[in-house]
Specification:
Low-confidence stretches: 1-7
Strand order of the largest sheet: 1-2
Number of strands: 2
Mean pLDDT: 87
Shape: elongated
Radius of gyration: 17 Å
Structural class: mainly alpha
Length: 123
């Protein structure tokens, strides 16, 4: 029998923000109300018992709102971190890069991003 592997996954920024709010003394119920999340979900996230296979879905569903509420920033799906609104707009309106592969990947990601400020579909 093979031993179980322990995977040390990097905690998403939005979960770290939830932990910071809890450390400031806010109750789990208060955080749930502010973020429009279910209280049990917030509790599981804070206790580290949230199912890892559902974390990507939770990140897409709640991450952008939590980063906007607690950091006044946009959660960039490509960078997977919060960035300022002006920085987001700069990425979204930048011309296509033909010399830098990473800039090209980011440019392509911005084209299909639901948070893209240049499309007018910002949620």
């Amino acid at each position: 029998m093979l031993p179980k592997l322990k995977l040390d996954l990097v905690e998403p920024e939005w979960v770290t923000l939830l932990r910071a709010e809890r450390a400031k003394g806010k109750s789990v119920s208060q955080i749930a109300r502010e973020t429009e999340m279910a209280r049990p979900s917030v509790s599981m996230l804070l206790n580290g018992t949230y199912p890892a296979n559902s974390l990507d879905l939770a990140t897409r569903k709640h991450g952008p709102r939590i980063v906007r509420i607690y950091r006044d920033q946009v959660l960039c799906p490509h960078l997977r971190e919060g960035i300022g609104a002006a920085e987001c707009e700069a990425y979204a309106s930048a011309p296509m890069s033909t010399s830098n592969p990473e800039k090209l990947r980011h440019w392509r990601a911005c084209l299909h991003c639901p948070l893209n400020p240049t499309t007018g579909d910002v949620k």
